[in-house]
Write a structure and sequence with these properties.
This protein is α/β, with parallel strands linked by helices. The chain contains 13 helices and 14 strands.
Length: about 425
């Protein structure tokens, strides 16, 4: 009876797989085999079953050997990988060997496949034993121990590879940036153990909500990111975002507490919203903050208007006309010195004492700041003080920081 061997054949050509199985049988093996034709199916197979060898059919029309090797590397799978092909230039064969292929056999030389497979099986035992410590060190350096998701370092590496494939294949790509809503409250109220449990459960649900070919990573704290290769359309990204929101909206049992969490998501698409990793991540992050500002628990696609709005001051130009300037009493004895602070439309009024001071030593800026201060003082007195003191003998004084006058004095002489 021959040696049983679990053989995973990657490719769509049934004729090639027949020749491979025939060669292995003639060489004394009893193959238990399965054939897959997409990166997703390959990922599912290597993660759900044990295999002894992978045979990569580089024939056109299916998944090519390079894509298969990239998938195996992304999943950190250490299996003997042998490429078979009818016609292949030597330069491509060398390139595939550099990518991780252990050998290359032309289809007209398949009679030497059994010897090649046996050699790789013999080497695999010692190689795996020697690599076990290296693999553990690699995992510790590239995966988040709490969520078991790729960390920021591995995420950017996978994003870079995904962008290269997207450019090469002229396909799209979607990047999702996610931030848990009110996570700080969980940590502060229920403790860090509950916060860690929540993060771990979030990681598990994110993995279940995406495809095997996608990458979900913990970027840091309560922030996550997801790469969707081949999902450059809004509809595809929209579908994934909705699925994630649904998955995370289900109650979580954490340390004896039942928690219901929400998440805010921002989405950027390649190539429309950026062609490099940093730009895509930045724009997805900006879109996520817009989701936060609009009430959280949702998602938003990036648009140029988001950058435009972010570049503007927080509404100061239109504040008086929209009644968003509020007089703030600072003290009450014999006078009421008014402090003024800009309040954005979507926030509550700030507490007294929270007024921020911005100073500059530049002459022109000092002129502008001083002039604006006078205008705001006049507006304040006209709208909130004088109407209430009408007909009374009133002494009005204003307060000005001496440092502001010092910065204004040189400018006044110019």
């Amino acid at each position: 009876m021959g040696n049983a061997i679990n053989t995973l054949i990657v490719g769509n050509e049934s004729e090639v797989s027949e020749h491979v199985l025939e060669s292995l049988t003639d060489g004394g093996f009893v193959p238990r085999w399965r054939q897959v034709g997409t990166p997703g199916d390959l990922a599912e197979c290597v993660e759900s079953e044990d295999w002894d060898v992978v045979i990569l059919d580089d024939a056109p029309g299916g998944i090519d050997a390079a894509s298969a090797l990239e998938t195996l590397e992304r999943l950190n799978v250490d299996l003997p990988a042998i490429v078979v092909s009818d016609k292949m230039a030597m330069v491509r064969a060398v390139a595939l060997m550099k990518m991780g292929a252990d050998d290359f056999i032309p289809t007209h030389e398949l009679e030497r496949l059994p010897q090649t497979v046996q050699r790789e099986l013999d080497n695999a035992g010692g190689r795996r034993s020697g690599r076990s410590n290296e693999t553990e060190a690699w995992r510790m350096a590239n995966f988040d121990p709490l969520t078991e998701l790729p960390n920021r370092r591995l995420f950017f590496d996978r994003l870079s590879h995904a962008l290269k494939r997207a450019r090469r294949d002229k396909t799209g790509l979607a990047l999702l940036y996610l931030d848990l809503d009110h996570f700080k409250w969980i940590n502060d109220t229920l403790g860090h153990a509950s916060g860690d449990g929540l993060l771990a459960e979030t990681g598990r649900r994110l993995r279940e909500a995406i495809r095997d070919s996608d990458t979900a990573a913990r970027i840091g704290g309560d922030e996550f990111a997801i790469v969707l290769p081949g999902s450059g359309s809004r509809n595809a990204a929209d579908s994934v975002a909705r699925k994630i929101l649904t998955a995370l909206s289900q109650p979580m049992a954490i340390n004896g507490n039942e928690l219901t969490m929400t998440i805010s998501i921002g989405i950027a698409l390649f190539p429309d919203d950026g062609t490099d990793s940093d730009t895509l991540l930045h724009n997805a992050d900006m879109a996520m903050y817009q989701t936060k500002r609009r009430g959280r628990n949702g998602y938003r696609f990036f648009s140029p208007e988001i950058l435009h709005n972010a570049a503007l001051p927080t509404g100061s130009a239109s504040a008086p006309s929209r009644d968003r300037l509020r007089p703030m009493p600072v003290a009450t004895t014999t006078g009421v010195p008014p402090g003024i602070r800009l309040r954005p439309a979507e926030t509550r009024a700030p507490a007294p004492g929270a007024v921020a001071r911005k100073r500059t030593e530049w002459p022109l800026a000092a002129k502008v700041a001083f002039g604006l201060g006078l205008l705001m003082m006049a507006w304040s007195l006209g709208t909130s003080v004088i109407p209430h003191w009408s007909g009374q003998a009133t002494q009005i004084a204003t307060e000005q920081d001496g440092r502001d006058l010092q910065s204004f004095a040189p400018a006044a002489g110019q």
